[in-house]
Predict the structure.
Amino acid sequence: MNKKVLIGFGIIFIAVLFIIIKIVIPNDKTNNVSLENYIEKNEKCSNNISKYIEDNVAYLHCIGDKGNIIKYTKNGDKINKEVLEFDYSNASNISQIHITIDGADDDYVYLKSAVKINDSIKDGEFVKCSLSSKKCEYYNGNRVNEIEVIKAENQNLNKFNIYLERDGRIIYLSSSLEEVYLNKSENKITLKDYISKSYQTLDDSINHVTDSMIKTETLKDGGTIIYKNDIFDITLVKCNTTKGNKDIFIADSKLKFDDESMCKR
């Protein structure tokens, strides 16, 4: 075997060895690569990209591509990629190619999308997609992370006025309160508007409020639940009596349930 052949085999051997080392030995620099930089380097979109990154999780959508959201999760020196195939049948009017990502939490990915009206694209709706069921639905764009109560001059805690009627149910507001606001970052909306303008059911809207509260008691009248949050100074009573009363009472945190007057309609 001549010298040139030996040199050729040597070069091939070194090249193969280098490839094996790159595959088998993990790149210890991966742990120092941010998701932002990793996505910029590895995810190529033909048009603009919409993304949301928090801690070690990122969601992105290539605007112009239909439907699917890509999820990246960083765990130590590994970055995993997952394509989330959401079901948009309950939000069928959205334009899936115009989706932008508005945020995410442990339960949902929140999207904003234009809508198709008579083959034209209009400013659209807010959509949330469940990470567990993969089903998407409309919502009003407000995710509650703070509750603010405005006290009234009249401090008659146990006198209630009708605040809102929906789906045959009544929400009562204590006369000691002037208004209840729900805050999302710098945005503020009244509880009435949050419920009235929502695409979700009344129970879903109220559940988003009580998620920020503590269930303190379940009554033996069929299942009426009392929620409180002393920091936000609010009490919410969600009636569920054996006689079918499903009204809601809202007051400040000092409210004590009155068996004679509440949940009796």
